[in-house]
């Protein structure tokens, strides 16, 4: 039909998640080794008693990073670590990465050396081998694509779609810091642009700036799960903000949730910065993203085991009410959770 041919749907109408669904909905898995394809933090490939985990991420200059305040060494470190985080989210261990870059002639060899220094530091720290990649030119800007390969025992793998009603919802570390760090860096960039004589004022905010520029993957938590013999019932890493991630777990698991607003862990520095920006720190935690903490659910039987772990906070529980995701406010009123996390295609 002519009309159909002429139809043009804007990317912004669809949004990132619906676009991925749209592009991949009719993909059929043909190899029996492919245990999990599209739809989790990593693909899962049968490897005997073990599985191979594969995940990939792309970073675009001007979209994901701004080189006016991101040192290239930090960028290399972060680019690797965010991939390790997706393997952690499957309860696995990252082992290898490949690194592909498209780079314009604006960059020098020394600049790329810096970027690789960061990658190498991350690989060393996390015991990961850099085993390949691809290098090409771009007309403008830097593009980075990293693929990570990880491993897990077959029975240890944790998916997004297996949360059960009454499970406890837990997060690691604290949330919202990376977003408030970004707000601060953006603010100081504007100040600097207006008057290059003024040096950035980041004093007292090392923590949130570090959260933005140098995140870590929570491999320590994966070790704790092993030591305590706890296997979460579902897990995802928080790259896009708590709201969007809990909705992924609930939607994929066919369940709902109640998350207590006052239980969401927030660092005092994050709070102070939020006050400065006249916003609620919980909004940064819910919608900010890039904290790379783990969001997971456990069966209530495991509560005794995790309750003394400082780095784990119980923030709510899973309900049977499919797709009904709520925040429980201090007065016990229920606020529907809406995912306002990262959208690659804003209008
Ligand atoms: P994460 O936030 O954990 O990196 P994403 O939201 O990027 O995950 O991706 C969700 C799922 O969709 C993953 O399984 C990913 O491999 C898959 N995916 C994303 N983009 C594409 C694409 N263009 N084609 C096929 N699969 C994709
Ligand atoms: Mg992820």
Radius of gyration: 21 Å
The SSE order reads HHEEEHEHEEEHHHEHEHHEHEEE
Mean pLDDT equals 94
- Distance from N terminus to C terminus (CA atoms, Å) equals 28 Å
Number of structurally distinct domains? 2
Binned, the helix content reads 25-40%
CATH topology of the largest domain: Phosphoribosyl-aminoimidazole Synthetase, Chain A, domain 2
CATH homologous group name of the largest domain: PurM-like C-terminal domain
Query: What is the number of helical segments per DSSP (H or I, 4+ residues)?
Result: 11
Salient structural properties:
alpha+beta, Phosphoribosyl-aminoimidazole Synthetase, Chain A, domain 2, 7-stranded mixed sheet, 6-stranded mixed sheet, binds adenosine-5'-diphosphate, binds magnesium ion
Describe the structure.
- The longest helix is centred in the middle third of the chain and has 18 residues, at 109-126.
- This protein has helices at 2-6, 11-24, 72-88, 109-126, 177-194, 206-213, 219-228, 242-253, 268-276, 281-287, 303-306; strands spanning 34-36, 43-47, 50-60, 93-103, 129-137, 143-153, 168-172, 234-237, 256-260, 294-298, 312-319, 325-328, 334-336.
- The strands form two sheets. A seven-stranded mixed sheet has the order 8-10-7-11-9-12-13, sandwiched between helices.
- It has two domains: 32-156, PurM-like, N-terminal domain (60s Ribosomal Protein L30, Chain: A); 168-336, Alpha-Beta Complex (Phosphoribosyl-aminoimidazole Synthetase, Chain A, domain 2), CATH 3.90.650.
- The protein is globular and about 55 Å long.
- By secondary structure, it is α+β, with helices and mostly antiparallel strands.
- The structure holds adenosine-5'-diphosphate and magnesium ion.
